[in-house]
Amino acid sequence: MFRYSLYLLLLVQSVQGQQKPAPDTIPAVIDVEMEENRAALKASLRPLRQIAGAPEAFYSYFWEFGDGTFSFAPQPVHAYKDTGNYDIRLYATNNYDDGKAPKSKPRRIRVKKTMYAAAPAPSAFFAASDMLAMKVNRMPKPGEEMVAIAGYRHPGGTGNVSGSLLLYYNEKQFAQKNFVLGEERAYAGERKVRADSVLAFAPMDDLYASPALAGPSAVRWIDPVRATTLTNMLAEKKALFREQHAWRVEDLKAGEEKFIFLSLETTPEMIKDTNAVVTISTIFIPDDPAIPVSQFNLDMQIVASHDPNRMQLKNRRMNYRFVSKQKELSYKVQFQNTGKGPASKVAIGIAVPGMLNGQSLEIMDYSPKCVLCDSAYERQSCLDTIVRQDSIFFVFNNIYLKGMQQEGVEDPDSTKGFVKYRVRFSEELKKLPFTSQAAIVFDKNEPVITNRSKGRFKPGLSPGIILGYGKGFQKQELPFGIPAGTLGVSVSAYAPYRPYFQAELYMSLQEKNERFISSRRDQRDTAIGNGKYIVRLREEYEIIQRTTVDVVPLHLRYNIKSWLGVGAGAMLSVVTGEKKQVKKVVEAMPIPDGPPQKFQHISGSDTKSFTATNAALFADINLGMVRAGPSLGVRLLQYLKDPQQRLFIYGIWRL
Predict the structure, then answer these.
(1) Is the pLDDT of residue 362 over 60?
(2) What does DSSP assign to residue 510?
(3) What is the distance between the alpha carbons of residues 80 and 86, in angstroms, rounded to a whole number?
(4) How do residues 257-277 score in pLDDT, each as one tens digit?
């Protein structure tokens, strides 16, 4: 029996050892085969660690060749233009893998002789005729390094172009810094300059000037429109971003494309909300006023793991106070064929939250570019759109979308696509989070489910004004708590649809109460003023005047309907000022005859501060515009220290 148990134990340990995943700390190794000035590169990487339920894990690649050029191919071949030493860098991204991205050190090579021509054709980095573009090797993940490539090119024409390239990052809308700029690598003589004034963006004061047309002593004039536009643009960027950098670019020749590589360390404090979208922005300011200023915004979704199929909502946190039913929400669904062959059909099904109106759909942009199916001929590449009550479908038909693992594919962008669209809110706009998600099907494969894209409203603060009337059930004693006339203020979340807390503060009007102490009958005669009287009765009273403050630190409320709300909580009552006096009353008969008369005298004044406290539990109900606006309330309070009940009827206006 012992041998059998020992055998089972060893068998279990053996199986566990076989199932143990490969460590994710194994560094990447760059393998180089040199032939004169031509380098054939490939990488040795750790085994992938598949995420359960996800598509097949794979690596994507980004290579820096150390001469200002790069490649996204898995095994690129690069010819260097000049001799010299070059540092090759590899950044491999582990898609659908639960480990860390492999790290690698730069691999230095030496080119002694140039044999092969190095004349690369214009890249597909830039869109259309844009002068500026940006890409990253992977989406930002907290605690992971990424590389941003800022590219600029000659706008066309024959003359050389000089100007300034500006970079903005770390948006002020987020409490923490998301990126730290580690290393910047420039290969075309770009010079770092200060970016805190307009003068830093050009070497001359006549940045916005154009030459006068007449006379040998031609002067330069300032174009006020261009100067104002640029000043406003820079001020806007500075208001949005915490960090900015600038480089001078000199003598960019016709047909040239140049790149700056920026190593960005994503901070551990980076917002870990995978629905959040962060932006890096660049601006190119040509010295020549005839060339327009170019800018490019790169939106990136924060990820927990690298998944090229994702959904994002821009500006996902909204202020409910200023949101109307006409508010447009911008969504973007990105997809990538990660297979080993091309896809001819891509179907995207999107769940539409009930708060959104799918019928308001407006397509803003999409890729691959093709016509809409309602205007296409038979078997033409086209995009079909189907809108239902709770879903939207985008179907790319008869396309050729390359696979990431397809042989001969070097440009990852050729394997990607996206749909960008807008929708509006429905008639019933509630202050509740709403979630959307997409399922992407490539040909007849299993659907790929994206992340959940969640929109939410900021809590917002709603101050309120309260005017009320308090009524106790004891007649003689001066009670604690809210008196007959009370003015108060409150603060709570704006227009809540879920349980919420409300704090209140009341400054009460001064209360006055008169308490009988004693009386005695008397038949003495006495002089009061100039007359003589026979005293019949003497009475003594205590007069108490109080000023109280009532604080509600804990008050939980819930709006059952838009017109009905209930709440319960605790209140603390503090007597901030108390004044006591003695009133003496004498009833006397005039001598020799006349009707009885009363005389009174108030004496003494004992004033104290913060003389007493008490606490109460309460429940109340509101009727009216209970989320925002005027409503009426009734509250029943039960005091604890000095047991009594008190009814408070009030009106509140939540702003």
Answers:
(1) yes
(2) P
(3) 9
(4) 999 999 998 887 776 666 678
Half-sphere exposure of 50 (CA within 13 A, CB side): 7
Q: How far is it, in rounded angstroms, from Cα 371 to Cα 394? A: 13
Amino acid at 251: D
Which amino acid does the sequence have at 306?
H
- Edge-first strand listing for the sheet containing 328-336: 310-313, 328-336, 416-425, 356-367
* Contact residues for 86 (Cβ-Cβ < 8 A; gap 6+): 65, 66, 67, 80, 108, 109, 110, 111
pLDDT of residue 478: 46
Q: In this structure, what DSSP letter does residue 623 have?
A: E
Going by C-beta distance under 8 Å and a sequence separation of 6 or more, which residues neighbour residue 612?
Answer: 480, 574, 575, 578
414-469 pLDDT, tens per residue?
899 999 999 998 877 888 899 999 999 999 888 999 988 888 888 889 999 999 88
For the record, the structure tokens of 266 come out as 């994503």
Task: Give the DSSP letter of residue 412.
Answer: G
* Cβ contact 589:522 at 8 Å: no
pLDDT digits (tens, 9 = 90+) for 46-100: 999 888 888 888 899 999 999 999 999 999 999 999 999 999 999 999 998 888 8
Which residue is it, tokens 């573009």?
A: 133
Q: How far is it, in rounded angstroms, from Cα 646 to Cα 546?
A: 17
User: For position 327, what pLDDT does the model report?
Assistant: 82
Q: Which two tokens stand for residue 569?
A: 């909580």
Cα atoms in the 13 Å half-sphere on the side-chain side of 231: 9
Rounded distance between C-alpha atoms, residue 437 and residue 525, angstroms: 98
- Which of 612, 601, 600 lies closest to 546 in space, CA to CA? 612
Q: Residue 592: is the preceding peptide bond cis (ω within 30°)?
A: yes
- Single-letter amino acid, residue 639: Y
* DSSP assignment string, 77-102: EEE-SS-EEEEEEEEEEEETBSSPPP
Local confidence band at 579 (pLDDT 50, 70, 90 cut-offs): confident
Q: What is the DSSP string of 215-266?
A: STT--EEE-HHHHHHHHHHHHHHHHHEEEEEEEEEEEEPTT-EEEEEEEEEE
The alpha-carbon radius of gyration of the chain (Å, integer) is 39
| Contacts (Cβ under 8 Å, ≥6 apart) of 452 | 275, 311, 435, 436, 437
pLDDT for 210 beyond 70: no
pTM: 0.69
pLDDT number for residue 363: 93
Find the length of the chain. Answer: 655
Evaluated on CA atoms 457, 459, 461, 464, the torsion sign reads positive
Distance CA 58, CA 46 (A): 11
At 619, give phi and psi (nearest 5°): -140, 145
Among 625, 618, 628, 632, CA closest to 493: 628
Instruction: Find, among 623, 624, 614, 622, the residue nearest to 646 by Cα.
Output: 614
Whole-angstrom distance, CA of residue 311 vs CA of residue 349: 12
Residue 183 in this model has a pLDDT that exceeds 50: yes
Residue by residue, DSSP assigns 391-420 as EEEEEEES--B--TTSTT---GGGGEEEEE
pLDDT > 90 fraction of the chain, expressed in percent and rounded: 36
User: Quick one: tokens of 335?
Assistant: 């997809």
